[in-house]
Amino acid sequence: MEQDKLLVERIRNNDQHALEQLFRKYYYPLCQFAGSFVKSPDIAEEVVSDVFFNIWQNRNVLDIRNNLKSYLFIAIKNQSLNVLKKNRISFFDMEISESQQKVSGLTAESALDYAEVEKRIETIIEELPPQRRIIFKLNRLEGFKYKEIADILQISVNTVQKQMIEAIRYISQYESQFFVSLVFGAFTLSSVLTRLHLIIP
Amino acid sequence: MDNHIFYELAAKVLTGEASETENRRLQKYLEHTEYRKTYQWLQQEWQKEFRQHSDEFSLDRGLYLLRKKIKTSEQTIRKAPRLHHITLLRIAAAVILFLGISYAIYHTGQNKNIPPSEYLAISSTAGERKQITLPDGSVAYLNAQATLRYPETFDRDKRRVELHGKAFFEVRRNPEQPFVVYSGDFETTVLGTTFEVCYKDTTHINVTVATGKVRVAHRTTGERVILTRNDHAAFDAAKQKFTTSEVHAEHLTDWHRNILHFDEITVKQAFALIEKWYGIKINCTSEAILTQKIRASYHNESLENVLQSLQFMTGFEYRQNNDTITIK
Asked: What is the similarity comment for this entry (chain A) (predicted)?
């Protein structure tokens, strides 16, 4: 945070190295975020370089009051949507085509072993509907708070919270699956015992 | 105890949004084994390092784009005159300069317009293979009946070529200037590797990677795959998706080294390959010959030598009449 402020100050003083330092720091997360809107990695990279170019162009009037990271994510979102608008593709169209494809091939019946669960947790997340996935990743990958996510995506805090709950509920559904398949006997026995214990204190 | 409230509390605590009260309310839920198990699992997931898939993006390329944008804008800023500083003298100078330039243009004629980089197109006929060295030193090997278009000099941001048919590429590594093969709706992007692209029509493409990493994308659907060594991808037109498989890339692509390779295939399949390789026609009706399996490879051999070798292996007799070979 403090480092970001110093970099912004140096950018205001026409220091291109500071701009590039900031660029290096946030490049991959911003590309990923842009990629969740524009799909093509080439375009995502264009979007990110455009945002930093705009910062450079406007460095004299640069006014970043809040946190710089949020500022960058908001800028990336706006620029991505501009690109989509220019190419006459709506994000909504893509959500539909995307939700039709299943990535991991996970089904409720398929039993998973532990190694698979480890590998597949990211695949499970890829299966979340786009908005939910973006929200989840902003929190999980970037550590943004509900309020910050709401600001970035211009939605209500309430929506962010609802989507996070749904995401967590979805993920925990795979927990029970992996548990049942892995320690079926022990688990059922212990839960039966717990229940008995509850009934007969 | 309510499931929905449990998840709401779990979400809040995991994301660091919970208040003291909410923390305590979650603890109540965790006294129950099932809620506790679920929560422990979630917590464990939460602590795991979430891997970022960053191989799709290249910081070098990003920096290159950014620097290019800044440089271009600075050049145009320098060129743009500051209107509020223009004096009469400057206007006069501009007028003189303008007249001078007009005079110069008038006298040097019209053929001074430099056209944007010229495109070259190279095609191979039936039975012909060609080797092309591209402006950046990369090499393209065209298989029979293929066409490659490429500029005399590549653009700064990308090395663009256009392919119809089958070609093998040996691309010089340059992360700042990706190499892109355009074929219809397909784009095959690499930074530096060896791979084969076979593009027949709008819905058929096959890509095989010998070394390095290659990305194949279908523009209209946004579908894409990343391939590495010995990966092969084909576009499934019905499903509008790529399907991938593992292959022996060296054997599949050694045609570019002028090696004709029969890897346990039937004589019938071998004849089809020979027809394409030498641009001839083979007539054979004997099922007994056609169904035999063979294994052989020929490096730079003449048609005659290949036929004699096959004759030795399978015991057929052949007669050549111009471009037609009849086998009994």
From this structure: Belongs to the sigma-70 factor family. ECF subfamily.
CA atoms within 13 A on the CB side of B264: 0
Q: Which helix (H) or strand (E) holds B94?
A: helix B88-108
For residues B160 and B158, give the distance between their C-alpha atoms in angstroms, rounded to a whole number.
6
Question: Is B17 in the A-facing interface, judged by CB distances under 8 Å?
Answer: yes
Tokens for B230, please give them.
């010995």
Task: Give the helix/strand (H/E) hosting B319.
Answer: strand B318-321
Nearest to B57 among A24, A28, A57 (CB): A28
Q: Which of residues 42-101 of B touch A (CB under 8 A)?
A: 42, 45-46, 48, 50-54, 56-59, 61-63, 65-66, 69-70, 73
Class of domain B119-252: mainly beta
Question: Which domains does chain A show, CATH number per domain?
Answer: 1-101 (1.10.1740.10), 103-201 (1.10.10.10)
Residue B114 CA: distances (Å) to CA of B108, B110, B118, B121:
13, 10, 10, 20
Facing residues of A195 across strands?
none
**Among the partner residues B7, B45, B57, nearest to A165 by beta-carbon distance:** B7
Collect all residues of chain B within an 8 Å Cβ-Cβ radius of residue A169: 7
| Cα gap B1→B8, rounded to integer Å | 12
Give the Cα separation of B157 and A179 in Å (integer): 51
Residue boundaries of the structural domains of chain B: 3-47, 59-108, 119-252, 260-327
Q: How far is CA B219 from CA A48, A194, B57, B223, in A?
A: 21, 56, 18, 7
Q: List Cβ neighbours of B293 (8 Å cut-off, separation of 6 or more).
A: B264, B265, B266, B267
> Which among B52, B61, B70 is the nearest to A56, CB-wise?
B70
Count the neighbouring beta carbons within 10 Å of the beta carbon of residue A53. 20
pTM over 0.90: no
Interface contact B129, partner A, CB < 8 A:
no
Backbone phi, psi, residue B154, to 5°: -75, 155
Can you spell out the DSSP letters for B142-196? E-TT-EEEEESS--SS-EEEEEEEEEEEEPPP-TTS-EEEEETTEEEEESS-EEE
**B-chain residues near A168 (CB < 8 A):** 7, 10-11, 14, 42
**Nearest CB neighbour to A168, from listed B42, B73, B189:** B42
Place of tokens 């460095």: A59
Per-residue pLDDT of chain A (201 residues; tens, 9 = 90+): 678 888 888 998 889 999 999 999 999 889 989 988 887 888 899 999 999 999 998 888 777 766 888 889 999 998 998 888 776 655 544 433 333 333 333 333 333 444 444 555 667 777 788 888 889 888 888 888 898 899 888 888 998 999 999 888 888 877 655 544 444 444 444 444 444 444 443
Rounded-to-integer distance, Cα A49 and Cα A102, Å: 31
What is this model's ipTM? 0.71
Class of domain B260-327: alpha beta
